[in-house]
Specification:
With 111 residues, the protein is mainly alpha-helical. It has a single domain, classed as Rossmann fold. Helices cover 52% and strands 9% of the residues. It has a two-stranded parallel ribbon. Helix 4 links the parallel strand 1 and strand 2. It is globular and about 40 Å long. The chain starts with a helix and ends with a helix.
Length: 111
């Protein structure tokens, strides 16, 4: 979830994120993962969203790589992808201010 450079330069934050996996019971985590797997792909429903989105993705995101985010945005008319350089999947941990800035910009564009 975190890019390698961030983990190396912020070991305390990397440990904190690592603790997320044990913050709940194994049974609860297993149930959540089973539900996630059973839900199937939401890609077929993207055309029903009907509103544009700003997708904020880390340059080094392995869970939702920038190319995948771009493919999603292309299915949502008027959407855009904002790529955070040097960031992994957990953008709010690695670059909270950059994410907040992009949220503010996206909200300003909707008014």
């Amino acid at each position: 979830m975190l890019c390698e450079a961030f983990r190396a330069s912020h070991p305390e934050r990397a440990r904190e994120v690592g603790r997320w996996l044990v913050a709940t019971s194994a049974q609860h985590l297993a149930s959540e993962l089973e539900a996630f797997a059973a839900a199937g792909s939401l890609s077929d429903r993207l055309d029903k969203v009907g509103i544009p989105a700003t997708l904020v993705v880390g340059e080094h995101d392995v869970a939702t790589p920038p190319a995948r985010a771009q493919a999603i945005a292309e299915r949502l008319p008027g959407s855009r992808v904002e790529i955070l350089p040097g960031c992994g999947h957990a953008c709010l941990v690695e670059q909270v201010e950059a994410v907040a800035q992009r949220i503010r910009r996206a909200l300003a564009d909707t008014v």
